[in-house]
Amino acid sequence: AQSVTQPDIHITVSEGASLELRCNYSYGATPYLFWYVQSPGQGLQLLLKYFSGDTLVQGIKGFEAEFKRSQSSFNLRKPSVHWSDAAEYFCAVAGAGSYQLTFGKGTKLSVIP
Amino acid sequence: NAGVTQTPKFQVLKTGQSMTLQCAQDMNHNSMYWYRQDPGMGLRLIYYSASEGTTDKGEVPNGYNVSRLNKREFSLRLESAAPSQTSVYFCASGTVGEQYFGPGTRLTVT
């Protein structure tokens, strides 16, 4: 069965600092990997996704993520965090041809002005 | 375009009552999904509909039923609500590669 682990429940960074949110997955074959963001009281929005090819993927809002097969990881990064990035971030995995996304438990990001 | 809409936004039920959560999308997507979100648990798939006329169980289907009324609408029914079903419910549509989420329904069962 596929699974996703987000080791950090809550991270606090200062505005302008760099950010890395960790995600580890478990899946037997090559996974499809995603990062979603949820602002307070809102639904989820897709930030970026990896299916195949270049292991460094760019997303919206200046985010990027790197797929590392050897480490079963798909960490999310941003070089300079803005106060508006405060939200909860979810990593997710799916298999090719599957309709089922499996989400991690989320990492809440707080940004200090 | 409204995207994915859900009604109601909030609901309080007593144990044993029934209700239906409504979801509609205007993006002409074939597939639609129902998730529940609980604190510290992330989102878990309840049911999905790959296309009009089909529905399948997800990770946590017990206590729920769904209906894919037409291509636009996908409803979730709680026949006899239990306190364990207190949660925030999200509907989504799209492919597994990109899902669009509604704003959610916050349900409390007392």
Can you describe this structure?
- Chain A is mainly beta and 113 residues long.
- Chain A has no helices and 12 strands.
- Chain A has strands at 3-5, 10-14, 19-21, 24-26, 32-38, 44-50, 56-58, 64-68, 73-78, 87-94, 102-103, 107-112.
- In chain A, the strands form 3 sheets. In chain A, strands 2, 5, 6, 10, 11 and 12 form a 6-stranded mixed beta sheet that branches. In chain A, strands 3-9-8-7 form a 4-stranded antiparallel beta sheet, with no helix packed on it. Chain A has a two-stranded antiparallel sheet with strand order 1-4.
- In chain A, a hairpin with a 5-residue loop joins strand 7 (56-58) and strand 8 (64-68).
- The radius of gyration of chain A is 13 Å and the shape is globular.
- In chain B, the strands form 2 sheets. In chain B, strands 2, 4, 5, 6, 9, 10 and 11 form a 7-stranded mixed beta sheet that branches. Chain B has a 4-stranded antiparallel beta sheet with strand order 1-3-8-7, with no helix packed on it.
- The mean pLDDT of chain B is 95.
- In chain B, a hairpin with a 5-residue loop joins strand 7 and strand 8 (74-78).
- Chain B has strands at 4-7, 10-13, 19-25, 32-38, 42-49, 56-57, 64-68, 74-78, 87-95, 98-101, 105-109.
- The interface between A and B is medium-sized, with 22 and 24 residues.
In whole angstroms, how far apart are the ends of chain B? Answer: 36 Å
Give the helix/strand class of chain B.
mainly beta
Low-pLDDT runs of chain A? none
Question: What is the string of helix and strand elements of chain A?
Answer: EEEEEEEEEEEE
| Oligomerization | heterodimer
Shape of chain B: globular
Query: What is the total tally of β strands of chain B?
Result: 11
Biggest interface, chains and residue tallies: A-B, 22 and 24 residues
Q: Quick check: average pLDDT of chain A?
A: 94
Radius of gyration computed on alpha carbons of chain B? 13 Å
Largest sheet of chain B: 7 strands, mixed
Task: Specify the structural class of chain A.
Answer: mainly beta
Give the distance, in angstroms, between the N- and C-terminal Cα atoms of chain A: 41 Å
Number of strands of chain A: 12
**Tally of contiguous helical segments of chain A:** 0
Query: Rg of chain A to the nearest angstrom?
Result: 13 Å
Q: Overall 3D geometry of chain A?
A: globular
